[in-house]
Design a protein that fits this description.
Structural class: alpha+beta
Order of helices and strands: HHEEEEEHHH
Number of strands: 5
Largest sheet: 5 strands, antiparallel
Number of helices: 5
Distance between the termini: 90 Å
Strand order of the largest sheet: 2-1-3-4-5
Helix content: 40-55%
Length: about 140
């Protein structure tokens, strides 16, 4: 099986096109050799992949017939990625959570109404419509 099709079928990349582009950018290698997307792989090959600034390393156990479900990926590859690479990934995710927690977005209409009710307690100093009418009449009389 071609390496681009393999990486797509074991769900390393979302589409085969993305897998091909990453291979063209020399981010995928077998052993120490950078490969082309047409490279045939076989069981026992160790594939090194640079994705999201992390160096993944997987060993091919078997070749799937077609794209497999996420639960079945373990039947075809062994993850040999070093633990420090995953620590880097976790640190990066934690640093992104510092700016904005996941799931907290813009306030809903109900949230906004609740905030308005909290801020506006009914004792506003704003003029009501009668005061505005009086204000404009006084200006016209002065002219």
């Amino acid at each position: 099986m071609r390496i681009d099709k393999f990486l797509w079928s074991v769900r390393f990349y979302k589409t085969r096109t993305i897998a091909t582009e990453e291979i063209k950018k020399n981010r995928v290698s077998i052993g120490e050799n950078v490969v082309k997307s047409s490279k045939e792989i076989k069981a026992g090959d160790v594939i090194k992949i640079r994705k999201n600034q992390i160096d993944y390393k997987i060993k091919v156990i078997d070749i799937p017939k077609s794209r497999v479900g996420a639960k079945l990926v373990a039947m075809y590859v062994i993850d040999m990625t070093e633990k420090d690479q995953y620590e880097i990934l976790n640190m990066r995710k934690a640093s992104q959570d510092y700016y904005r927690q996941k799931g907290i977005g813009r306030p809903t209409k109900k949230d906004r109404r609740d905030m308005d009710g909290y801020v506006d307690d009914g004792s506003s100093d704003d003029m009501d419509n009668e005061d505005w009418d009086t204000f404009f009449k006084e200006e016209k009389e002065e002219d």
